[in-house]
From TrEMBL:
PANTHER family: IRON-REGULATED INNER MEMBRANE PROTEIN-RELATED, PEPSY DOMAIN-CONTAINING PROTEIN. Keywords: Membrane, Transmembrane, Transmembrane helix. It comes from Streptomyces neyagawaensis. Residues 82-143 form the PepSY domain. This is PepSY-associated TM helix domain-containing protein. InterPro entries: PepSY, PepSY-ass_TM. It comes from the Bacteria. Pfam families: PepSY, PepSY_TM. Residues 1-21 are annotated as: Disordered.
Length: 477
């Protein structure tokens, strides 16, 4: 990549005054923020670009899924009365006797089918289930599709989800998305600081051209989208591999972890013993189990999870993640249909609620279509910002070359009373967010080494020129 020298611009860090005059905190920090924003943008932008494109596609996948799988997800004709859940499950098992019943989601709407999820089915990923779709009015099986995750993602959305999360590269691929989430807020914060540090007259877009116009567009869109970027970064880190683990530990120590319902139900003899061998309790029990949950106020949509073994209860839980959130759950004794434990979303710790809402908003389910459109708009904004950022770098150069990178040594201009606390904050953040700390440390190390090499090369070059000059003078004598 060719890098050409460029003329002085308002983006170029100003040198330290030789007379040691007092400089404002902002004047000291600006070159450092500019250098960090520039290099982080250039190096991390490819990861952010992939995350933005795949994330926008995932936000659209909810509506695409409804179209692609309309036959399975909806009934052919709405009837007068829905059949008992036990009959619907029996129809699903007759059509698909393989595997065991892992969960049942009764039809949540008049035109929606019931889903009977089967685990241990050959050819289905062990992390997913085979969802059998049953017409609740006729018990007709309308199809079967592989399903993944708590949101009930079907094959198309599952594929897009994994593309966004790990590029279909498994746990190793998750590093890309965590890197993007770790740096998105840093780049956004740096952009905000630089933008509001500019004079008001330099922020306008109208009447400008060239690099000045690109900078205006980049800054204006970045300011409007910054809050969304901070949100996506924070919520994305909550279930990332490394930072997410640290967040979970912190929540646990603060007693803010998501509570779990107790599924213990005692000893029920032969009834549950036989059920455990089949992987689920007797399917005729489902109707009274559901009735007990309804009596506790659990409205649709719900999921019924059969007992795991002879000493366990059914768990019926609400699965509505759209607003208003419905996440209540009850455990029901299979022999008596009595509720043995209750878990209300209203009783969740504050951070557990915020985590739930944050993840659901990040994935586009909290506010439905509006949420999804907003995510698509944020993704488009991020793509434009990246393209404008690279364009500005190109416009700083000459002919067919990128502009000169921001000069090193900006940290030397920062007063110690500002630099030391800032480094302490960066060290703490780097510890809790490793894919922010490790790349930043690597960049600083490489930058220091390159700076030392350039310094020594400059000294050698200066020494060689001095020696040559002396030799020429002696020859002339």
């Amino acid at each position: 990549m060719t890098i050409a020298p460029s003329t002085e611009t308002d983006e170029t860090p100003k040198p330290v005054t030789p007379d040691g005059a007092t400089r404002s905190a902002w004047a000291s920090l600006r070159p450092l923020v500019l250098r960090l924003h520039f290099y982080a943008g250039v190096l991390v932008a490819p990861f952010l670009l992939v995350a933005a494109l795949t994330g926008g596609l995932y936000a659209a996948s909810f509506q695409i899924e409804k179209i692609v799988y309309a036959d399975e997800m909806t009934v052919a004709k709405v009837g007068d009365e829905k059949l008992p859940i036990s009959e619907q499950v029996a129809a699903a098992r007759k059509a698909h006797p393989e595997g065991t019943v892992a969960a049942v989601r009764p039809s949540p709407a008049d035109d929606a089918t019931t889903r009977v999820m089967l685990s241990g089915v050959e050819g289905v990923d062990e992390t997913g289930t085979l969802a059998v779709f049953v017409d609740p009015y006729t018990a007709e099986v309308r199809g079967a599709l592989e399903q993944y995750g708590a949101t009930g993602a079907l094959p198309l959305r599952t594929w897009i989800d994994k593309l966004h999360a790990n590029l279909h590269l498994g746990e190793t691929g998750r590093l890309y998305s965590e890197l993007a989430a770790s740096w998105l807020w840093v780049i956004s914060a740096g952009g905000l600081v630089l933008w509001f540090g500019r004079r008001r007259a330099q922020r306008k877009v109208r009447g400008t051209s060239g690099r000045r116009r690109t900078l205006g567009l980049h800054g204006t869109v970045g300011v409007w989208a910054a809050a969304g970027f901070f949100f996506l970064s924070a919520t994305g880190l909550t279930w990332s591999a490394y930072a997410g683990a640290n967040i979970d530990v912190l929540r646990t120590e603060l007693r803010q972890a998501t509570p779990a319902i107790s599924a213990a139900a005692g000893d029920h003899g032969g009834h549950d013993a036989g059920a455990a061998e089949g992987g689920a309790a007797a399917e005729g029990d489902l109707d009274k189990i559901l009735a007990a949950a309804r009596a506790e106020g659990l409205g649709d949509p719900v999921e019924i999870v059969p007992p795991a073994d002879a000493s366990s209860a059914y768990v019926v839980k609400q699965v509505q993640r759209s607003w208003p959130t419905k996440q209540d759950a009850v455990a029901v004794d299979p022999s008596t249909a009595e509720v043995t434990d209750t878990l209300r979303f209203a009783d969740f710790p504050v951070l557990a609620k915020l985590t739930r809402w944050g993840i659901d908003a990040h994935t586009g389910v909290l506010f439905g279509l509006v949420n999804q459109l907003l995510l698509i708009a944020l993704a488009a904004s991020l793509v434009l910002l990246i393209l404008w950022g690279y364009r500005m770098w190109w416009q700083r150069g000459r002919a067919s070359a990128f502009g000169r990178p921001i000069p090193r040594g900006a940290w030397q201009q920062v007063p110690p009373q500002i630099l030391v606390p800032a480094l302490a904050v960066v060290a703490v953040l780097g510890y809790f967010v490793p894919l922010l700390g490790i790349p930043l440390a690597a960049f600083i190390a490489v930058d220091v080494v390159l700076g030392e090499i350039a310094h020594r090369k400059g000294k050698r070059t200066y020494g060689d020129r001095t020696e040559a000059k002396r030799s020429a003078e002696q020859g002339a004598e």
